[in-house]
Amino acid sequence: MLFSLIMTMVPGLRTPGSGNAGQAYGAAASSTAVLVLFYMARTLRLQRDETSLQREELELQRAEMRLQRAELELQRDEMRRSAGELHRSAEADLRHLHMDLLKMSIGDPELAEVWPAFAPELTPKENRQYLYANLIYCHSMLAHKLEMLDDREALGHLRYIVRSPAFRGYWESARSMRAEMAPASHEHRFAALVDEALTQSNAQAPYAPNLRLIEGQHNEP
């Protein structure tokens, strides 16, 4: 209002024909309204720009938080991977120790007597063979668990092993021990591969060597 009154005193707003303060006041009010609208528009634009900057800053903060969460998840994955590797390493060391104990018992009949017999009425020779079969089985299972062999490769390897009567005898005698395995364990899964290898081997025709080739007879009859 004060600004409008001042504007009425501006000579340019007084026309020669009017000489009327009311007209001057009306012109001043119009000018004031234009200035107010200009100021409001400028203020709204500044507020809009400020809001846009705040949104951008908020989005940057959210992006930074997402990056931090991703980095934390990577760190957790690395920790889990390291823990898994340590566990596998410790398990491998433990199984190697078990194999060393078996080797000692195989090489020393007195130490072999410390291990319970795999089955009644086994001769010392048969029991040592079963101990050795158990050593082969542990070695194969460890190679599979450490992912040196996949299921297909392990199955091919096992089909060769189960052709041995001594291994078959060992496997049958250890059936009660396999019943104690947890269904979700790797040992249970690998034992199922051995059973599958036995099934496939039993379905195949028995192996019969070519005696003529063994005796050096290469000619067809």
Write the layout of secondary structure elements.
Layout: H1 2-8, H2 21-107, H3 109-112, H4 124-145, H5 151-161, H6 165-173, H7 175-178, H8 186-203, H9 211-214
Helix pairs in contact: 1-2, 2-4, 4-6, 5-8
Cα-atom Rg, whole angstroms? 46 Å
How far apart the termini lie comes to: 131 Å
pLDDT averaged residue by residue? 77
Question: What's the total number of strands?
Answer: 0
Specify the oligomeric state.
single chain
Proportion of residues in β-strands: under 5%
Return the string of H and E elements.
HHHHHHHHH
Low-confidence stretches: 207-221
Tally of DSSP helical segments: 9
Q: Could you give a short account of the major beta sheet?
A: none
Q: Helix amount, in percent? A: over 70%
Shape: rod-shaped
| Strand-pairing-aware structural class | mainly alpha
Describe the structure.
This protein is mainly alpha-helical and 221 residues long. The protein has nine helices and no strands. The protein has helices at 2-8, 21-107, 109-112, 124-145, 151-161, 165-173, 175-178, 186-203, 211-214. Helix 1 crosses helix 2 (21-107) and helix 5 (151-161) packs across helix 8 (186-203). The chain is rod-shaped. Mean pLDDT is 77; it is low at 207-221.
